[in-house]
User: Fold this.
Amino acid sequence: MILNTEMILSLAGAGIGFLGLMSALLALRAVHGWRAQALSLESSLAALRRELELLTSISAKTGRRVARVEQQYSGVADRVDQVEMRGPVQSYDQAIDFARRGADTDRLTQQFGLSRGEADLVTRLHGRKKTA
Assistant:
């Protein structure tokens, strides 16, 4: 009987040892899978960081461009108000009369609120002809 008990205990020990070994192998496999997943996440995080840095750079450049555009066109509202306040026909008629009397582009721009292009056009069309 002692052999039978020893044999049963040996078989039970071997079974427990085998189950322990299988558990350890499964745990190692799970750890390997988690490690691979962690590496994948780290890689994704690095790529996300690079994209975030790129977006930050683009955002900063866009902010500077918007500020520059706002600065360049800050006088547009004032110019529109000037144009709306003047009577278009009267201002052009008066500007044409002044151009015929020899007024230059700068004076037409200052006195009638014409843009540089408008004043230049009025002077070319209605100004005194220059003789050589």
Summary: Residues 2-72 form the longest helix (71 residues). Residues 76-126 form one domain.
